[in-house]
Structures are given as structure tokens and as C-alpha cells.
Amino acid sequence: MSTKKSEKINNFLGFRLSEHDIIKLEKIAKDESRSRSLIAKQAVKNWITLESFRKTNKMIISTKSILKSMFSQFLSEANEELLNSLAIDTADLLADITRYNIPVEMDFKNFRIYTKNLINLLGNTGFRWFNKIDFIVKKDRLKIKGLHDLDEGFSEFFTSMIEYYLETFFNIELNNEIKDISSSLIYLEYTVKKIME
Fold this sequence. Notes:
By secondary structure, the protein is α+β, with helices and mostly antiparallel strands. It has a domain at 63-194: Muramoyl-pentapeptide Carboxypeptidase, domain 2. Helix content is 50%, strand content 17%. The chain has helices spanning 19-32, 36-56, 68-77, 80-101, 111-122, 151-170, and strands at residues 132-138, 141-147, 172-181, 185-194. It has a 4-stranded antiparallel sheet. Helix 3 (68-77) packs across helix 6.
């Protein structure tokens, strides 16, 4: 009696990028002190995760699913209660996605790893909410800088959502030092304090 060996799946993936994309990739790799391969691998994993959530979750989270202008109009017309509810639901979903995406525990000691992942998740390779976004963590200071084209309602919504996400899932207290938001800019600066359990 012969037993058939199961075929091993080839887990190697090779593809070419344009010179323009390679230059961008090199810059990201240099900024993050990581190899191009690791950055590309993480980008593919992020995309797979986002596609999985997009197809299985009822909530609209991607601007592929809804025009930016419609999303912006919805946010501008929503009342405060609806915006707060949407911010909390979105923060909960964002926590699920980031926990799934990152192989380390979601806690204060891994805070920097999660903020790095959020840059990819919220920018052009993820939800496409931002044209550019940065999280800068230095000691007990956190700065969030973002450029978008979703209008002021989005700036208000995002600020509420990200504050809830960070405080709830990392058990920290954010003391707002600077809040400068407009129809295309978000600049938030906080002092960060870990809440004693």
C-alpha cells in the first residue's frame, strides 16, 4: 500500500517593480532600517489582511468600497452622536485588524511597532484615508501628522477614532498638547502616560 505525499506549496513569490516604485521602496527601507524584501513582504501581508476584512466585514472601511467624496459628505452631515459611535466602531475594527496583522501582543511595550503598522494601514497602501501620515513617538510624546483630502468632518472623526483606539487598547492616557486640524491637515501632539493597572 503506497501513501501519496502531499505536495508542498511553493512559498516563493517574485515580481518586478517600476524604477519609480523601487526608489520609493528603497527610501522606506532606509527610513525604517529594514530590507526591501521585508518591507515588500509586509505590504503583501497587509493587503491580504485588508482584502480579507473588506470581503467578510459588513462595515465599509476602504475607499475602494465607497467614493471619497461620498464618505466625506456622510461625515460632514452626521450628527455628533453618530460620529462618536462610528469612531468607536472603527477603532474596534482597527484593533482587530492590527492585532491580526502583528505577531506581538497589543500592549504598551509594543506601542511603537503598532504605530509603524498604522502608517501603512491608514495610508495609500491601506485604507487610503491619508495621502501621507506619520506617527512620531519620542519618550512620553506622541505626534500624529496627516495630510488628506476628505474635509474637516474626517479630521474630527479621525481624531476621535484614533484617541479611542490608543487609549482603549494600549491602556494609556493621552493629554492633548496641540490639536491643529483642518479640511486637509491633522496635527496632534500628546503627552502619553501609562495607566497603572
